Amino acid sequence: MVAAILPSTLAFTACDPIISIAGANFPSWLFCMLIGAALAALVRPLLLLSRLESNVGPLTIFYPSLIAMLAMIVWVIFFDRT
After folding, report:
1. Most CB atoms within 10 A, among 28, 39, 40, 73?
2. Does 69 reside within a domain?
3. CB 71 within 8 A of CB 36
4. How far is CA 41 from CA 8, 20, 80, in A?
5. What is the distance between the alpha carbons of residues 65 and 10, in angstroms, rounded to a whole number?
6. pLDDT at 29 (0 to 100)
7. 36, 74 in Cβ contact below 8 A?
8. Cβ of 16: how many Cβ atoms within 10 Å?
9. In which domain, by residue range, is 54 found?
């Protein structure tokens, strides 16, 4: 089983786009998560002002899911190669 997983793991490690910031290399998923968290932080006051935050369900599930969704949208917009 390990012999089948190891080659695919090694093959996919080079597929992640890298962002160079001030000479340091960062994986693009980290950039997308930071942007997703920043966008979710901007969405929260809008939900509070419109009084919709009480309707979204458990906040401990909603906000991490919102961050992940926004991060995936940023990934598709900026890093999708298809």
Report:
1. 40
2. yes
3. yes
4. 37, 25, 24
5. 29
6. 83
7. yes
8. 11
9. 16-79
Contact 53/59 with Cβ under 8 angstroms?
yes
N- to C-terminal Cα separation, the chain: 31
- Give the mean pLDDT per block of 10 residues along the chain (82 residues): 65 66 79 94 94 91 95 88 65
Query: Which pLDDT belongs to residue 2?
Result: 64
- Please state at what angle helix 28-49 crosses helix 59-79, rounded to 10 degrees: 130
Per the domain annotation, does 74 fall within a domain?
yes
pLDDT given at position 16: 65
Q: Could you give the number of structural domains in the chain? A: 1
Question: How far is the C-alpha of 18 from the C-alpha of 26, rounded, in Å?
Answer: 6
